[in-house]
Specification:
Elements lengths: L5 E6 L4 E6 L4 H10 L1 H4 L3 E4 L1 H11 L3 E3 L7 H10 L5 E5 L9 H13 L4 E2 L2 H8 L8 E6 L1 H11 L1
Helix pairs in contact: 1-3, 4-5
């Protein structure tokens, strides 16, 4: 691969963190936010509808709310990842309950992976990420240069 096949993305010291939880996991995520309140205060927070509102009401953290997951909130968060406006996703998902918007959840997880965005689906993973020394500094990572990829595909079609 050539050097211009990749671009470097930078996660700044102040991270943009998305907070999401399925209904049966909302209270667990709120408890987690309370545990890590001092760290989370240093970052910009957003989340899907009900989760964002509940976190703000119960912790005092400012969390910008998007639509609820089933009404497109997961896709809004995914779009922000593509725009480079989300650096980290904390998503307490419920593996034991079927979700009507499961395709949206899978799309969000996929786009986070495509853009090499850290994503935690469990409390343990979230604990490891939020307490990492990398949370206190900038972090550079390489992703595929999608603009070049699109141009090359357009030429070959």
């Amino acid at each position: 691969m050539l050097q211009d096949d990749f671009i470097t993305l930078t996660l700044e010291k102040e991270k943009n963190i998305a907070l999401i939880a399925h209904d049966n996991k909302k209270h667990e995520l709120i408890g987690w936010c309370k545990e890590h309140l001092e760290i989370l205060k240093k970052h910009t927070l957003c989340g899907t509808g009900t989760t964002a509102r509940m976190i703000t009401e119960q912790t005092g953290l400012v969390v910008k709310g998007y639509n609820s997951g089933p009404l497109g909130g997961d896709q809004q968060i995914g779009a922000k990842i593509v725009e480079g406006r989300i650096d980290l996703v904390i998503f307490f998902s419920d593996p034991l309950t079927a979700q009507p918007h499961d395709p949206d959840v899978k799309a969000l997880l996929r786009i986070a992976q495509v853009y090499d965005i850290p994503i935690a689906n469990t409390k343990a993973t979230a604990d490891f990420i939020i307490t990492s020394p990398l949370m206190e500094s900038t972090y550079e990572h390489e992703v595929v240069n999608f603009n070049k990829n699109v141009q090359e595909r357009a030429k070959s079609l």
